Amino acid sequence: MKQKKAKLKDGTEVNLRLMVKKDLDKLHNFYLKLPLEDRQFLRMDVTKKENVYLRFGKLDYDLIFPLLAVHNDEIIGIATIFRAEFGWKRNLGEVRVVVAHDYQKKGLGTILTKELFFHTIKSNVYKLEAEIVETQSAAKAAFERFGFREECKLKNHVTDINGQRCDLIIMTLDIEELWYLTEDSNKDPYFNIC
Of 24, 95, 129, 153, which one has the fewest beta carbons inside 10 Å? Predict the structure, then answer.
């Protein structure tokens, strides 16, 4: 994927590009700036640099497809598709999106997610999955707008970093249902690729 420009709801232009190895320190700094409420449901302690390096240090875009949003040479968002290297889930892509607090509610998460979708259409991923905690109602609504459906709710399945047990919702989307995005993307005011 070549670098693209995108315009947010407030007119801010951002660059979208694949992450490369030299971005690791910037990515760690991005995670450090996230408020606790935005970090509490991440799968690793991103405040520890070694964890960020362990997760993203060996880039294989077939297995981990990390798309960055950059503004003024600073990472302001990351959207990633994670895939299994082998086995029965190798054609399933797990979607994760994290946006810097100051750029939330400006359409950046939507832009990043759509770019992941366009990548997925060209890959051998057949289904996308997103896991969210029930209290993340805005994230659930956003995924529903993209056509994701709730497959199941697992009661008290996860524990946040404060020790609070929460229900986990698993949402999925079949890739065939993504084709409407390629037809409607130019009509979406929050998906202005320059």
Answer: 153
